[in-house]
Design a protein that fits this description.
Blueprint lengths: L2 H6 L3 H21 L6 E2 L3 H4 L8 E2 L1 H15 L19 H17 L6 H21 L7
Antiparallel strand pairs: 1-2
Helix pairs in contact: 2-4, 2-5
Bound molecules: zinc ion (ZN).
């Protein structure tokens, strides 16, 4: 495993975001990929113990999570903006579309899974970003 990746995963925010994505992917995969063979995620992040509950997802979602872990770990922005508001498109197209689907599906549903606070924070940040974008054409939000 890449040492830099392991070091970055020790960052509280990186671990938190990664865990959140894992939970979102589980909600999405259970809703959308029912019938697909699901298995516990065997990614580097999972091996490092980043996830509180190791996500049990299908192969496609596992690929997305393994990819997302790396993108999150090596995100060059400090503080990281919400990906939707970021001007750097670091995801390749297929992964970006898959992630957008996950967010769209799991975001509202995550309210029922104890993520009301994150959802609320995201909403506030979205508003702030829209305001900032309107004023200066740039948005930089913590996320
Ligand atoms: Zn899936």
């Amino acid at each position: 495993m890449n040492q830099r990746f392991a070091d970055r995963m020790k960052d509280r925010n990186v671990a938190h975001d990664t865990r959140l994505l894992g939970d979102f992917a589980v909600i999405y995969c259970n809703g959308k990929h029912r019938g697909a063979a699901q298995a516990p995620l065997g990614s580097d992040g999972a091996r490092l113990g980043v996830y509180r509950n190791v996500p049990v997802v299908c192969e496609t979602c596992a690929e997305l999570l393994a990819y997302a872990e790396k993108r999150r770990a090596f995100c060059a922005k400090h503080p990281k903006p919400f990906c939707t508001h970021c001007d750097t498109h670091c995801y390749k197209t297929a992964m970006r579309e898959h992630m957008r689907d996950v967010m769209r599906y799991a975001g509202p549903r995550s309210m029922f899974h104890g993520y009301a606070i994150q959802g609320f924070r995201h909403l506030l940040a979205s508003r702030a970003a829209r305001k900032a974008a309107g004023a200066t054409g740039a948005a930089d939000n913590e996320g």
